[in-house]
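Batch manifest, entry 17 of 40.
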Amino acid sequence: MGEWIGRGRKARRSYGFDEIAIVPGAVTINPDEVDVSWELNGKKFEIPIIAAAMDGVVSPDFSVLMGQMGGLAMLNLEGVWSRYDDPTDILSEIAQATPERATELVQKLYEPEVREDLISKRIEYIKSKGVTPIVSAIPQKAERLAKLTEEAGCEIFVVQSTVSTVRHISSAYKTLDLAKLVESTRMSVMVGNCVSYEVALELMECKPAAVIIGVGPGAACTSRGVLGIGVPQVTATVDGAAARDKYYMRTGRYIPIITDGGMNVGGDICKAFASGADAVMVGSAFAKAKEAPGRGFHWGMATPHANLPRGTRVRVGTTGSLEEILFGPAHLDDGSQNLIGALRTSMGSVGAMNIREMQRVELVIAPAIKTEGKVFQKAQNIGMCK
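Output type: structure tokens
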């Protein structure tokens, strides 16, 4: 399997969203009648989109608003909301910084220690609004923070790192026993990120609530450039779905996979589900919302790294409200608004009544899918060619 890339060395061909297309079905369905909901540990969520745990995207208020609209918005436990009582001025300073100054400034502003009292306060606030709290922590701090967040009323705890494995080796710090953490808490524990069949399957053996797929595709992430690692999201999602299905056949336990990153428009999100995702996680799409705390800017969780930042602050602009981005009406012609409407229409066009059926639709390799016949859009820098 794979192609020769040199003497004695093969590499497997992999695919991203721009290289495939979804084939319309023989049966079509009224988009208003398809079911886009998904389940996590038996709890149903009306929309299968999670806002990523990035400070330019999710604040406690944004988490509440997203939850009220039927989705989830993940709060970063090591971000500005757990370091400052009121990070309003901090967020303004980041937004006003020059591109040359931005990374250095973010590193400086993330130096204060994380405060456990603020973590509890943020979770309690989200919980008080009748919304499911979901938070993210790195593996090294997961054990301590899981206990704290559960006491504060958190319901979903995400162990997230650039690359997640069950078999992590370190002599400098205690490694996380993921299976033990999952077993020790009443919270639903999600884990990520990974991009291969083997690793996804090993993570599922620890019985998490979900596994997150994707290394480096995010708009603000530079891991692929800095570290040279990653797998394009279509192939990574297909492989993750294969692991999920294998695990389900063997155990009877269905562990959803969540495709994280690389999706800027509705078509990308639709292709993620067609590749096998149960839900998706996006950042830059929501950083454009009026309610997002980043003021039209977006930066990754690894950007503040003191020695090796693997992210950058990007300007995405403010284009509309969260409701418009999720449900429309769309005021832009590039597919970045009414994401749920796009998913419904795509599912209707391929005859998929629900997400499980969407996972089984026909795909084709189509490198010309975004450029074929689009000469005027390209010349005028509009629509699909912005």
